[in-house]
Amino acid sequence: QLKNDFDANSIFIIDMPIGLEVNKANRSCDIEARKFLGHRRSTIFSPPCRDAINSGTYQEAKAINLKKTNKSISKQSWFLKDKILDAHNAIEQGLYLKEGHPECSFAALSGKPIENSKKTPSGIITRLLCLQEIGFNFKSALKNFPPNMEIKIDDFLDAAILCWTATRVASNSNFTFPPKNQNDTDPFDCIIYI
Asked: By the 8 A CB rule, do 15 and 83 touch?
């Protein structure tokens, strides 16, 4: 669907694991992102390995992941299976999808990890103020939402900050975990864009 709605040069930064490890419990991008976030590192979770993501059941995926990586997987990881596979399918169809992480982007924007969760009043307002400082147009966003669209505030905040990240990628002013080799063009690399 996205391919029909956007220009071929569009850049999409999504909060979804893209590159998956074969036999490592933790991706290097997640390890670096956790270091960057410090006390907020629990917002980064490890996705299943490549073989586990194609499993039919959670129990089967846990067993495969344990065999391949010596680590089980959480239900949170497993519940993202279909979305991870959807992202992989979109990339194979030619969409420029890259992985981002909202908390890393907010930390980069504000100069440090945001203290409070995006589910608390303080965390919500802090993130809204960060977006306001970079000129995020809330009125325009409101006009573009379909009528009666339901969206959680934390999902809105995540999408808004990843728009900022996409503009940074478009202008080559972003950074990545781990640092990206300019010669590396694998669309399924384990890289988080910030």
From this structure: no
